Amino acid sequence: MASPIERYRLMLDSSEMGSVISIVRKGMRNADSLREAISPEAWSALATLRGFFIRSRFRLEATDQEARRTTRRLSDTAVAVIPQFFATAQLSMLADDGWRFSELGQFVERAVTTANATRSVAQSILKRLDSFHSIEIELSAFLRLLGSRDAYRRIYQTRAEPPQVLEFLWQNAEMPRSVTYSLRRCAELLQASLPNSSPTAQKAQSFLDELLRTIRRVDWYNFFINENEISFRLLRHEELLALLDELLSETHGLHHVITDNFLSHQSIISDPEPTLF
Description:
By secondary structure, the protein is an all-alpha fold. 68% of the residues lie in helices and 3% in strands. The protein contains eleven helices and two strands, in the order ααααααααααββα. The protein has helices spanning 4-12, 20-33, 40-54, 64-92, 97-125, 132-145, 149-156, 162-171, 179-193, 199-217, 237-263; strands at 224-227, 231-234. It has a two-stranded antiparallel ribbon with strand order 1-2. Strand 1 (224-227) and strand 2 form a beta hairpin. Helix 2 (20-33) packs antiparallel against helix 3 and helix 10 (199-217) runs antiparallel to helix 11. The protein is globular, with a radius of gyration of 21 Å.
C-alpha cells in the first residue's frame, strides 16, 4: 500500500513522467494546439482543471497530513472535471472525424485500463481465496475505484465475488467501464469515420469482431467452484492468469491496429460531412 507521500508524489511531482500533473500538462499542451476547435464551454472545464494544478505546488517537506489532504483534493477535482469536459464537449463541439478520433482514444484507453486492472487484482486476490472477508472488501474497493460498484450491485444484487466481477468488467455490454462496452464503441466510431469498403476499416473491424467473440465465449465460472454458497474457491489458478494475460495482450493489440492503419500510413477518411453551403 502506497504511503501518503508516495501518493502525493504520483499526484503532484512533475519530475515523475507518470504523475497526474505531468499528464494534465501534456493534455493541456495538446488542447492549446487545438484551441480553435474546442468550444468555449468545453475549454472552461480544462481551464478549471489547469487552475487547480497551477495553484497546488509540490513541496518536498510536506507532512503526511498535508500530502493526504492535497492528494484527496486534487483527485476529487480531476475525477469531477475530466468527465465534465467530455460531457460538455459532446454537447457543444462538432461530432466530426476529429472528435470521433478523440473518443476512440478514450475508449481504447478505457478498455486497456480495465483489462490491466482486472489482471492485477486477480493476481492479488487469487492466492488467498480462503480469506473471504478481505477479498470481498478488496473487490468492492476495486469496483468503486472503477466507478462501477453501484452498477455491479444493481445487476448481481450480491457481494463482490471474483467470477461475477470478472464477468461484469469483461463482458457486460451496458456497463461503460467494461472491456466489451469499450470495444463496441471503438467499432462504432471506426465505422462512422471510415468507408466500409476501405481495407483499413475492414481490417480494424475484423480485429474487433474476433476479439469480442473471444471475450464473449469466456465462462469465468469454470475457473471457480462455489463452496457452500458462501465463497468461491479457485480451481485453475495458472490457467485463469494465463487467460487474463492473453486477453490483455489482445486488447493492447487494438492500439497497434489503429496506429498501423490510421497513423503510420495515409488512410482514407470518411467522406466530408455535408454543409449548408
